[in-house]
Each structure stands twice: as C-alpha cells, then as structure tokens.
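Batch 3, record 17
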Amino acid sequence: EVQLVESGGGLVKSGGSLRLSCAASGFTSSDAQVNWMRQAPGKGLEWVGHINSKSAGETLNYAAPVKGRFTISRDDLKNTVYLQMNSLRTEDTAVYYCDVRGNWGQGTLVTVSS
Amino acid sequence: EIVLTQSPGTLSLSPGERATLSCRASQSVSNNFLAWYQQKPGQTPRLLISGASSRATGIPDRFSGSGSGTDFTLTISRLEPEDFAVFYCQQYGTSPFTFGPGTKVDF
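Prediction for the assembled complex:
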C-alpha cells in the first residue's frame, strides 16, 4: 500500500528557508513521479512542482510562483523526497502535500510571517 | 499554462439527485490526463477519476468521468449525503500541471 508522510512544516519569517520531507513506503519513490501540491488557508489546490522517475530522467518542473526559490530532490536510500523552500513569502503560507499516482499524504502546514 | 475553468461554482442539490460538474481547459489536455478530486472540510483531497474516465480504487460507480480534449464532465448519478464536498479537476498532461478553482456541491 502506498503511504506518504510529510514533515518539516512550521513557522518561519519572510525571507527564511524550510525543508519539507515526504517519506514514502509501499513503493520505491525513484520509480514514480512525485508531486508537491499546496493549499493556502481557505483557498483551492495549487501544484508546486514534481520530480520525475529515474526512468524518465528525474527531470524537475516547477510552478511559476516558486521557480528559482523552491527545489525538489530525492534520497533513494531513505526513500524520501524533499522540497527545499528558500526566500519564503507570506503568500507561501499553506498546507503542503506530496502525491504519487493520486495518493496524497496528510500534509504539513507552513506558515510564513512578515 | 493550461487554465482550467470549472462550472458551476456552487451546485445546490439534494440527496438522490444527479450532479453534473464541468471542467473546461484553455487548450487540449494531453492524452486526456485529467483527474477529479473530492475534498471535504479538514480532509486531504481524494482522487476519484484519472485519465478523464477511470475510477480510482474504491470509488463507487455512482461517480463517472467523461470528456476529451478541452471539455470534461464529472457526473454523480445519485448524490449520497457523504458526497457533499468541493470537487477539483486537474490536468497532469502538460507541465505546469494545473487545477481548476473547484465546484462546491452542497444542500
């Protein structure tokens, strides 16, 4: 059974950094495309970016609002995908989810204060 | 970027009624890679449909997806009380992947 557990969220000041983790079980993360999504309080869903599977070249893609500030990476030994978030802004405040083939984790809350 | 428009914004129905939700894309969705999600308050989104018309594991057959190209539909044949929620469509055929703004189905 595919399971994803996000962690690393918290409160950070504007301009700061945070690294989120998405720990996978029930499958090998390098065999799958892993997406990051987010949902600001009271708002809709937003795709943040993804890392493709090893067989697809592990290419990275990002949404325009986070390009150049956020970086996705993977640790195969830990079967974990990371979202490094730099130069955080108040508008990055959201619950962040990782997703594989429609299976989402429970999310982790990131709050960016001014 | 492919922009998804969902209509209506809110659908007010009663249990037992049929719900028809629309998702329109600003350009053709590659390989009809269009998904539908259901989200209830305080919960994680749940995948209902992928590939425009394939039900996810465990999803009741009252949920069905149809459409291709730029026009897609999610139909709930007979609403159950637990179906009332917000529904999002997402295209995952072309990066950046995008979501629609959602349709709220309520009483």
